[in-house]
Recover the amino acids of this structure.
DNA sequence: CATGAATGAGCTTTCATTCAT
DNA sequence: TATGAATGAAAGCTCATTCAT
C-alpha cells in the first residue's frame, strides 16, 4: 500500500510540476505562444511524456485555470465568513483577492487568457464555470447583505456592483503593459495602487451616511 | 503631380482596406488565430501583396492599435474641452470612451491583445506609447482640475484615480467571457452595466459634500 | 493568354510529377509506409509545397487511383469495341488489362491499397466507384453478348464470370510475394504465367461445343 | 517438473492470447493501423509485457501468419489424402481452402498483409516460406496426378494451374472493397460467388472429354 | 505594383520500444 | 514475470515570409 501511494504521490508530483512549468510559461508569453516543447523543457521531460499526463495543450491550460479558480473560491469562502456585516464582508473578499494574487500570482493568467478557443464539448469548462459562478455569487451575497443591514449604500444593485468590484480588482492586480507604463511615468508602485484601489472600493460602496470611518 | 497623388491615394486606400480587414478579424478571433491568408482573402488581395504595405503581421497589428489610439485621443481631447469644470470633464471623458467604443468597437481589441510580444526594437511602439500617454494625461488633468476647483473629492490622488477610471471603463466595455456569463446568469444587459458603471464612477469621485446631484 | 497557359501547364506538370513520385513510392512500400517527406524528396520539392497541390496524403492517393481507373476504363472501352462477338470481346478486354498493366504498372497499386481508410465523406470516392463500375459493366456486357451469340458457354452467369475474370487477371498481373516465391521455385516467368492465364480464361469461358480452337 | 510445465503452459497460454487479440485487430484494421497499445488492451496486459513474448510488432504478425499457414497446410494435407484421383484431390483441396477460411477467417489476413516490409534478415520468414511451399506443392501434386490419371485435362501445366487455382480461391474468399461493390450492384452474395467459383474451377480443369459430370 | 509559387521552421500529436523497479 | 513511466523519432500539417516574374 505504501508503495502504491508513493508511486501515486510521485505521479501527482510530476503532474504538478508540469502544471507549474506551464503556468509560468503561459503567464510569461500567453497560451498561444507557448509550445509543448517549451513546457517539456521547463519540466525536464520529453515532449511526448506530457501526453501521458494530459491529453493535449488545452487540458493543461484548463487544469491550471480550474485549480486556480478552486483555490480562489476557497479563499473567498473563508474570508466571506470572517466578515460580520456586509461592509466587512466586502472588505474581506477584496482582501481575499489580494491574498490569492499575492500567493498564487501565476493563476491570474486565467483571466487574461480565458479567450482560448476551447472545444465546446469540454465538460470541464462547465466545471470551471460552475466554480467561478460560485465565487461570484459570494460577492453578490455580500453586497446584498450590506444593502440589507445598511452598512452599504442602499440604492445600489448588488449584482452590478459585484461585477464592478471584480473588474476593478482583477485589473489592478493584473496590470496591462499600458497601465504599467502610466504607473512608471508617474512613479507609482503596484502596492500603492492596490492599496488605493481597496480604499476606493470601500469608500464607493459603503454607506457614508451611516458609518463614520 | 495629380497622377502621383492619385496613385498615392489609391495606395493609401489599399492600406486602409487591409487594416480594416485585419481589425475585423483580429477582433473576431484574436491576433494569434488570424492568418495572413485570411487577411488577404478579406481584402481580396494576394497574400504576398500584404507585405508591400506592411513589413509583417506585427506591423499590421501595430498600425491598427496606433490608429485606434489616435482616434481615441482625438475624441478625448474634444470632450475634455467641453467640460466646464473638473467633474464635468470627467463626465465628458467617460462618455468619450463610450463613444469611441460604440463607433469604433474593433479598435478595442488593442487593449486585449496588447500582450503581443513585439520585438522591443520597434520604434513604432514608442509612437504608440506617446499617444496613449497623452490620452492618459488628459484624464489626470481632469482629475487635478476637479480636485482644485472642488467639484471632485479633494483627498484623492489624480493619477491613481485616473488609472482606476481607465481600468473600469475598459473592462466594462470589453467584457471577458466570465463576466458575460455572470451577466447572463443574472439577466443583465451590456447597456445596463455601462450606465451603472458611469453612475458609479461619477458618484465615487465627485465631491458629494459640495455638490447635490 | 500564352503566359497563362504556360503557367497552367507548368502547374499541371508539377502536379503530375508529384503524382508520379507518389505512385512509385506507394507501389514500392504501400500507402501507410510512405511519408509526405519521401514524396517531397522524390519530387525535389519542399514537404509543405505538396500541400499547395493536394489537401493531404489521402487526396494524393485518390488522385492516382482515379487517374489509373480512368485510363483503364478508356483502354477497356476501346478494346471492347474491337471485338466482333462476345468471345472476341472477352479476349480483347483481357488484353486490355495486360496492356494497361504493361504501360502503367504503377497504377496497379490501386487494387492492393484500396484498403486505405478514407473519410467516408469524400465525394471523390463516389467518382472513383462510378468509373470502376463502368469498367466492370463492360466485362459483364461482353459476357452477356457471348452467351447470347453462342460464342461463350451459355450456362454461365455473366456477372459472376466477370468477377472471376477480373480477379484472376488482377492477381496474375500483380503478384504477391508468395506467388513470386512459388514461381521462382518452379522457374516460371511472369510472362509465361500471364500467357497461360489468358489461355486458361478463354478456354474456360468459350463455348467449346461450338468453336474448335 | 510439474511446476515448470504449468508455468510453461501458462506462458504458452499468454502467447496464444496475445496472438488471438492481434489477429482480430489486424483483421479488422490492417497491420499498420493496429497499435501495440490496442493489442495490449485487448489481451488485458501491459503494453510492455508484449515485448516479453514477442520481439516486436512484426514478430507478432509473423507468428500469426505462420500459425495460419500451418493450420492450412494440415487441412490441405488431410483433404489431399481423401481424394481418390487427381480430380477428386483438386476438389478436396479447393474445399480445404474454403474450410480453412470458414473456420479461421482471421488468418486470412496473412494474404493481404503479407506485404509488410519485413527485415529480410528474419529467419522466421524462411520457416513461413517453407510451410507455404509445402502447401503449394500439394496442389501441384494433385494436378500432376490428375493429368497422369486422365481425370484432369492432359494439356495443362500443373504448376501454372496450381497458381491460378490458388489465386482464384484466395480472391474469392477475401474480397476487395471494389469486388464487394460490384457484388452489391448486382445483388450477388458471397456464398453464391464461392459456389460458382468452385464449379468454375472444376469445370475448367477437369477432362471433359473423359468425364461426364 | 501585384502575385503565384515555394519553402523552412515549427506545431501538436502518435507510437514502437526501452528500462528501472 | 510484469509493468508504469519515459522517450526518440517521426508523422501530417500550418503559416509567415521570400522571391522570381
Amino acid at each position: 500500500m505504501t508503495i502504491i501511494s508513493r508511486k501515486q504521490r510521485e505521479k501527482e508530483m510530476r503532474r504538478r510540476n508540469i502544471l507549474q512549468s506551464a503556468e509560468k510559461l503561459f503567464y510569461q508569453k500567453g497560451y498561444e505562444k507557448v509550445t509543448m516543447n517549451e513546457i517539456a523543457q521547463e519540466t525536464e521531460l520529453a515532449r511526448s511524456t506530457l501526453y501521458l499526463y494530459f491529453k493535449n495543450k488545452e487540458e493543461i491550460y484548463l487544469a491550471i485555470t480550474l485549480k486556480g479558480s478552486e483555490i480562489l473560491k476557497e479563499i473567498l469562502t473563508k474570508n466571506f465568513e470572517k466578515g460580520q456585516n456586509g461592509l466587512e464582508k466586502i472588505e474581506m473578499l477584496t482582501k481575499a483577492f489580494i491574498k490569492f494574487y499575492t500567493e498564487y500570482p501565476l493563476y491570474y493568467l486565467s483571466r487574461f487568457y480565458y479567450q482560448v478557443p476551447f472545444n465546446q464539448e469540454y465538460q470541464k469548462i462547465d466545471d470551471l464555470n460552475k466554480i467561478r459562478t460560485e465565487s461570484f455569487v459570494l460577492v453578490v451575497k455580500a453586497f446584498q447583505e450590506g444593502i440589507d443591514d445598511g452598512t452599504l449604500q442602499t440604492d445600489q444593485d448588488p449584482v452590478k456592483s459585484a461585477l464592478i468590484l471584480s473588474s476593478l480588482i482583477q485589473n489592478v492586480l493584473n496590470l496591462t503593459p499600458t497601465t504599467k507604463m502610466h504607473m512608471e511615468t508617474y512613479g507609482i508602485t503596484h502596492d500603492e495602487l492596490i492599496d488605493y484601489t481597496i480604499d476606493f472600493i470601500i469608500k464607493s460602496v459603503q454607506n457614508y451616511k451611516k458609518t463614520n470611518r
Notes: Chain D has ten helices and no strands. The mean pLDDT of chain D is 87. Residues 7, 11, 45-49, 52 of chain D lie near DNA strand F (CB under 10 Å from a C1').
